[in-house]
Design a protein that fits this description.
The complex is a heterotrimer. Chain A contains 15 helices and eleven strands. By secondary structure, chain A is α/β, with parallel strands linked by helices. Chain A has a single domain, classed as Amidase signature (AS) domain (Amidase signature (AS) enzymes, Alpha-Beta Complex). Chain A has an eleven-stranded mixed β-sheet with strand order 1-3-2-4-6-5-10-11-9-7-8, with helices on both faces. In chain A, β10 and β11 form a beta hairpin. Chain A is globular, with a radius of gyration of 21 Å. In chain A, 67% of the residues are buried. Chain B is of the alpha+beta class. Chain B has a domain of 39 residues: Histone, subunit A. Helix content of chain B is 30%, strand content 9%. Chain C contains 17 helices and 15 strands. The longest helix of chain C is centred in the last third of the chain and has 25 residues. Classes of the chains: A alpha/beta, B alpha+beta, C alpha+beta. Chains in contact: A-B, A-C, B-C. β1 of chain B pairs parallel with β2 of chain C, so a sheet runs across the interface.
């Protein structure tokens, strides 16, 4: 079997048992990237030399019986909106950062390095994480490994595709309105957005500060759990990261195979309404039936503010915060500066006009409008009130159920270019995911089948704040009964691979 | 809530984004459509509901007043598009307080 | 429309740098003479991905100042972003407090040439300073930015419009500074730009039919950084408003023209328009999502309030009641630790002198404040130490001992000063130094007579001059006699013996 068919946990075992070396693992990934990236454009930059150096060092330490971290020697990819100080650019898939190199590592990047992971490269995204298809990248879109005419989802399309195509076993993404979960669903991998405050945002280039969270992609639940384990926890540099005292980080892997029973699953009627593709619905309902067979009870719940109102709320709150967070990109202290300006104000106007793509401009202007004098109460403040209503919907639901399930995305992967002309249609891709960000609760997408056209479908699982351990166990229950992760996209099958079958 | 071209221009200036050619109209149309969508919220009764600005009930996060090393000027200025000695260089600012 | 109705109505916004070691949101050091862009980090540079973390000392100092200004400390304070684009503001927003500040509703009693004026305080809040934008050297067609100052903690104090003259404005500003320095909130160093003033000036032009007050337009003068420019600018604005109003009483009103922003040119003594009402900033305030609210523990607030020292006004009054002049009282009350040291010193001196006579009751205070205002202050300047360090190197008890030795005549005053310096440098008590160096004053008349004879013998001309009427030569002979004694002779005795021998 192809080395790249191994999951991260399988890598970990193989490395520990000496069946392979980190260098071998890294070289295998680099070869897959070399072969597939020209087609898929999942990676914006690849640090082959750095990765090999890191892998060799881990191998040396292992041979010398020196202590090793949780992820020692396993290749990983990082979404290019997280700062890396290793010489690789951090572009946020935007032109406006020019050739800027971060002088510091994001907290999660520090954690990856401390745990011995081998960072192979930075992955593509919608510019500044604004989008649901990765088509908003200034450097070309990523293609869905299952059908290269289609989008991988967004904004973390690069990380999702990289994992789905087996270029790396796992990767970090960020989720502000669904940007981990939706691409995970469209690419047929596991993606998890932790509770807000669970993982430090220090070094994550901010899009919407009260919504952004960094989370793992993996082909299996265990892989996602492993990466979450390495990155979760308090960081004094992020005032919004929760303290160890208030919420100690549990061991996400220890009890992973223990089912959660009894299990009451909330099924919101609003997640099965108009706009949901019938094939997607059928696949998701089949997944719910699996849970019933395992002894879970499905309970109909209502989240009255969670779909359309949540989208409206999200596109006010997120854009308002984005307009503020992106004000700093002006070509004054770093990044790209225009060369045709007449004076200083003109310099700001042109640098930003030339550096930002259309979607970013739209969101900045929307946010500026929502915060401007005379509109603040009607838009921003109103949205914050509805946000509380959304949170209450979940609080009430979680009194009656242990988790909430439904489709992650209303459709499977759509064609590249299909929604580019209609921003609003694009926004509605997030209709099931945004409410979790607004309510700060954790959520995951789990592969649960395919459409007739062979496109992946994702099952979304939401649970209460700081219950990621239980959420992962719930996901694992389903995963054990099925084997979607064993199926590889055809183009990921290397010359020596065997098709299908679990490792 | 339809935005006129003038309003789009005003917002663009406030956002420090120069719009050219057909952009004003195109953005006006798109932004108007989005604003119309988000106007849904008007229909919700939120009289008795407090705004939720912070997701988690965390308070009083403070750090000790202990100095740590700063960047060296070359690192601080490393990404500067234009530099004059150890300072950032910008087009001449005429007015003391022109930053509207 | 007659003169007395045009009453100046002035509110003052004061910004002061806090005496913290690090910036408000990052651990860069606050230093005033550092090379450009050498006290910056990704956080204060506003780089992608960074986050602010609040400085606990800044919060403490802010709350202390608010308490000293008799403010209420609300249960919740929150931070907000104030947006505007400028090259000295890297994030293009300033983190400040908008509608829920750390302190509200206080006052400060200000002494204005003998009158007491109570100035209400609307609010006290924290915010970060911006960097420095400067014009190019040699007049090039560009400007340059140094971001060292970005992120320095600023305390903003906003007063009610309870100030009614330029003189009062200045007195208020000076009183705030004194209070801040006194409490250790700020070093109040005007040269370093640690205080900035923004007065809002208008004239009251009587009342309307319903009895509500009417005003001329309000002008806000930006960025005055000295008391002198504050006073001049306010006086100028009062006169300018008066002129404008008298030229157009119907049109020159607050309703019609609103508030304008003006700059001040100190060299020409003129203000100039910067922004009219229509061009006012739209700051698009946004609750700061990267910082969590501050909910002060009530016990902590009570403890801070209780720990406030006797404030300058009270201390000055107490010193005057003790018999000190207003000037001396003011000088001693200028810094909290100096006043405390004076109190400790007078007590220590009183304790030591129980048996040795009544100089304490007649001159004790004077002797103490002389030593402090002359020699302690000199030492602080020379050694660049602060009063806290001084106190640990020379506790009041030790200085009291030295003073005792001088007053008892064991050593003379000059020797006393030498011993003082040695005490500070070597951290030794006076008695030890006197003993080790054999500095005990010579008072024996026999020995002194010998020194005087020496001086007379070696300075015949001076003797002749003195006898010829030149009084100054006496001083010369005294000096010679003291020198002959190695500085140890009791000057009183030398004087007596010299006078006797010169026969005059």
């Amino acid at each position: 079997m192809n080395l790249t068919d191994l999951t991260a946990c399988q890598w970990r075992d193989a490395l520990r048992e000496g069946r392979t070396s980190s260098r071998e693992a890294t070289d295998a990934c680099l070869a897959a990237i070399e072969r597939l990236n020209p087609i898929l454009r999942a990676f914006l930059s690849v640090d082959a030399d750095g990765a090999r150096r890191c892998a060799d060092e881990v191998d040396r330490r292992r041979a010398a019986r020196e202590p090793l971290g949780l992820l020692a020697g396993i290749p990983v990819a990082v979404k290019d909106n997280m700062c890396t100080a290793d010489g690789q650019p951090t572009t946020c898939a935007s032109r406006i950062l020019g050739s800027w190199r971060a002088p510091y590592d994001a907290h999660v990047v520090e954690r990856l390095r401390a745990e011995g992971a081998v960072i192979v490269g930075k992955t593509n995204l919608d510019e500044f994480a604004m989008g649901s298809s990765t088509e908003n990248s200034a450097f070309g879109t990523t293609r869905n490994p299952w059908d290269t005419e289609r989008v991988p989802g967004g904004s973390s399309g690069g990380s999702a595709a990289a994992v789905a195509a087996r270029m790396v076993p796992f990767a970090l993404g960020s989720d502000t309105g669904g940007s981990i979960r939706q691409p995970a669903a469209l690419c047929g991998v596991v993606g998890l957005k932790p509770t807000y405050g669970r993982v430090s945002r220090y070094g994550l280039v901010a899009f919407a500060s009260s919504l952004d969270q960094i989370g793992p992609f993996g082909r299996t639940v265990a892989d996602a759990a492993l990466l979450l384990q390495a990155t979760a926890g308090h960081d004094p540099r992020d005032s919004t990261s929760v303290s160890e005292k208030d919420q100690p980080v549990p061991d996400y892997l220890a009890a992973l195979d223990e089912p959660v029973l009894p299990l009451r699953i909330g099924v919101p009627r609003e997640f099965f309404g108009a706009g949901l593709d019938p094939e997607v619905e059928a696949v998701v309902r089949a997944a719910l039936a699996v849970y019933e067979r395992l002894g879970a009870r499905l309970v109909e719940v209502s989240l009255p503010h969670s779909t359309e109102f949540a989208i409206a709320t999200y596109y006010i709150v997120a854009t308002s915060e984005a307009s503020s967070n992106l004000a700093r990109y002006d070509g004054v202290h770093y990044g790209r500066r225009s060369s045709d300006h007449a004076d200083m104000i003109d310099m700001y106007m042109r640098s930003r006009a030339q550096g930002f793509g259309d979607e970013v401009k739209r969101r900045i202007m929307l946010g500026t409008y929502a915060l401007s004098a005379g509109y603040y109460d009607a838009y921003y403040k109103k949205a914050l009130r509805v946000r509380r209503l959304i949170r209450r919907d979940f609080e009430e639901a979680f009194r009656r159920v242990d988790c909430i399930m439904g489709p992650t995305s209303p459709t499977a992967a759509f064609r590249i270019g299909e929604r580019a002309a209609d921003p609003l249609a694009m926004y509605l891709s997030d209709v099931y995911t945004v409410s979790a960000n607004l309510a700060a609760i954790p959520g995951a997408s789990l592969p649960c089948g395919f459409t007739r056209a062979g496109l992946p479908v994702g099952l979304q699982i939401l649970s209460d704040v700081f219950t990621e351990d239980r959420l992962l166990r719930i996901a694992r229950m389903y995963e054990r009964e099925t084997d979607w992760s064993g199926r590889a996209p055809p183009l990921a099958a290397g010359p020596t691979a065997r098709r299908g079958g679990a490792a | 809530m339809a935005l006129s071209r003038e309003e789009v221009l005003k917002v663009a200036t406030l956002s420090r984004i120069r719009l050219t050619g057909g952009e004003e109209e195109r953005f006006a149309t798109q932004l108007s459509a989005i604003l119309e969508y988000v106007d849904k919220l008007r229909g919700l009764d939120t009289e008795a509901v407090e705004p939720l600005a912070h997701a988690l009930p965390i308070h009083n996060v403070l750090r000790p007043d202990e100095p740590r090393p700063s960047l060296a000027p070359d690192q601080a200025l490393g990404g500067a598009p234009e530099r004059a000695g150890d300072c950032f260089k910008v087009p001449r600012v005429l007015d003391e307080d022109a930053g509207a | 429309m007659s003169e007395p109705q045009l009453a100046p109505t002035i509110g003052l916004e004061v910004h002061m740098h806090l005496a913290t070691r690090t910036k408000l949101f990052c651990p860069c050091a606050v230093e005033y003479d550092a090379p450009p862009n050498s006290r910056v980090c990704p956080v204060c540079l506003g780089m992608p991905g960074v986050l602010p973390v609040m400085n606990e000392k800044a919060v403490e100092l802010a709350v202390r100042m608010a308490l000293a200004l008799n403010c209420e400390i609300p249960d919740l304070a929150k931070w907000d972003r104030k947006h505007y684009y400028y090259p000295d503001l890297p994030k293009n927003y300033q983190i400040s407090e908008y509608d829920q500040p750390l302190g509200v509703g206080g006052w400060l009693d200000v002494d204005v040439a003998g009158r007491t004026v109570r100035v209400g305080i609307i609010r006290v809040h924290l915010e970060e300073d911006a960097g420095k934008l400067m014009h190019a050297e040699g007049g090039g067609n560009y400007s340059v930015v140094d971001l060292n100052r970005t992120g320095t903690p600023l305390l903003e104090i906003v007063s009610q419009p309870d100030i009614h003259s330029a003189e009062e404005a200045r007195a208020y500003g000076e009183a705030l500074r004194q209070l801040a320095v006194y409490l250790g909130i700020s070093r109040g160093d005007m040269q370093l730009g640690q205080m900035r003033f923004e007065p809002n000036v208008s004239l009251r032009i009587g009342s309307d039919a319903a009895g509500r007050p009417r005003y001329t337009p309000i002008s806000e003068i930006k960025n005055l950084n000295s008391f002198r420019s504050l006073e001049r600018a306010v006086a100028f604005e009062i006169a300018r408003h008066r002129e404008e109003y008298e030229a157009d009483p119907e049109g020159y009103t607050l309703e019609k023209l609103g508030k304008t922003t003006r700059g001040w040119r100190d060299d020409s003594g003129l203000s100039f328009l910067q922004r009219s009402k229509e061009e006012a900033h739209d700051y698009r305030y946004l609750p700061e999502p990267d910082l969590v609210p501050f909910m002060p523990d009530r016990k902590w607030v009570d403890e801070l309030r209780a720990s406030l020292p006797e404030l300058p006004a009270q201390r000055i009054a107490r010193y005057i009641a003790m018999g000190l002049s207003a000037e001396i009282a003011q000088a001693l009350a200028d810094e909290n630790l100096i006043g405390q040291y004076f109190d400790d010193l007078t007590k220590a001196v009183a304790r030591l002198s129980k048996t040795s006579g009544d100089w304490v009751s007649t001159r004790g205070n004077k002797v103490c404040h002389d030593w402090i205002l002359q020699h302690v202050r000199r030492t602080l300047n020379e050694k660049k130490d602060d009063m806290g360090e001084f106190r640990s190197k020379m506790p009041a008890e030790r200085l009291a001992e030295l003073i005792q030795l001088v007053e008892e005549g064991k050593i003379n005053r000059n020797t006393g000063v030498e011993v003082f310096n040695e005490m500070y440098a070597a951290n030794k008590p006076a008695s030890k130094i006197v003993e080790e160096k054999g500095l005990v004053q010579v008072a024996d008349s026999g020995a002194i007579e010998a020194f005087v004879d020496q001086a007379i013998a070696a300075n015949a001309k001076a003797v002749e001059d003195y006898r010829g009427g030149k009084k100054a030569s006496f001083g010369r002979l005294m000096g010679e006699a003291m020198k002959a004694s190695g500085g140890k002779a009791n000057p009183q005795v030398v004087k007596e013996i010299l006078l006797k021998k010169l026969g005059g």
